[in-house]
Amino acid sequence: MQILEVEHLSKNYGRIQALQGVSFEVKEGEIFGLLGPNGSGKTTLLGIVTSILKANKGTFSWFGVRANTHSFKQIGTILETPNFYPHLSGYDNLALRQKIHQRGSKNDIVEVLRLVGLSERAKSPAKTYSLGMKQRLAIAAALLGNPKVLILDEPTNGLDPVGIAEIRNLILELRQRGLTIILASHLLDEVEKVCTHTAILKKGELLACGKVEEILSKGITIELASESLEKLHDFLQNRFPLVSISKENEVIKIQMSENQVDLAELNRICFEAGITLHHLAKRRKSLESVFLELTDN
Ligand code: ATP
Question: Which of 37, 67, 38, 65 has its CA nearest to residue 50?
């Protein structure tokens, strides 16, 4: 099922072009990461699809229809660091929100606090919470009313490693429970670890979009070495004329995509051509190197 579709979205702030014709689709069950350096337009994009901002061009739809009040009831968002009343407990803060925003019922509060792992501290004043706990309380608030989609902007910003791990695990758990999650992040590591899909933005333009593993698999390098590198190089270049093959530091490197790679087959082909390999390895480029190549000027 389609959750969100954005088509040719453009937005400018005066002369600053924050988004330029961005299109992509998010499907049910995905953890979709908008990835890009600071200023690439992630927050602007999330602002538009939550109707906080207006696009100059383009359209978006939620659940297959142009956004309306009903669709927003099914979306939980945290776009800014939320302010809680410091003297009120986590529970009372949620109760207040539930009342003001009319999302969910009182019974939901206990459940969302349990989901984010704050049951034991539900009665403590919010001012005694760590930053990670405050972020989890914010997620609990966004989960009131049992939304289908959760939108998070830089969910682990400012957290220590333990807090980061907790939020990442929580995101994965929420997906298990059937939520679709859309998050913005400038951290490659974050997108690589938690997201199923990603859209890479640079200066408001969409550079790449797809499954994280597919974007990653565009960067497979195979290393081979044999007694005569010249012979090996010529043989491979003849055999795979369209593939990029180079000689570096006593190894031959071949760039391939994941579905082209079968090491056993490669070994057999070389052996049958009278070449014995003494080194054969597959190296996966990290999303970081793919990202750097994509966002390179
Ligand atoms: P960050 O992670 O730093 O928030 P981002 O990828 O979310 O970055 P945006 O905040 O969407 O990017 O900003 C995109 C561009 O639009 C930037 O050049 C930014 O300076 C500009 N911009 C954003 N909001 C405004 C505004 N209210 N007025 C003018 N320019 C703005």
Answer: 67
The HSE-up count of residue 85 (CA atoms within 13 Å, CB side) is: 10
Q: What is the pLDDT of residue 273?
A: 93
Burial of residue 82 (CB within 10 Å: 0-12, 13-18, 19+) is: middle
Predicted local distance difference test score (pLDDT) of residue 268: 94
User: What distance in angstroms lies between residue 101's CA and the mean position of ligand 1's atoms?
Assistant: 28
| Alpha carbon of 126 to ligand 1 centroid (Å) | 30
Report the DSSP pairing between strands 277-284 and 197-202.
unpaired
Residue 68: per-residue pLDDT: 63
The whole-number pLDDT of residue 233 equals 94
Q: Domains of the chain, with CATH numbers? A: 2-216 (3.40.50.300), 220-284 (3.30.70.100)
Given this model, what pLDDT does residue 118 score?
Answer: 95
Q: What confidence score (pLDDT) does residue 297 get?
A: 58
At residue 180, the pLDDT reads: 97
- Low-confidence stretches of the chain (pLDDT beneath 50): none
- Probe ligand 1: pick from 12, 43, 156, 186, max atoms within 8 Å of CB? 43
User: Is the pTM of the predicted complex or chain greater than 0.90?
Assistant: no
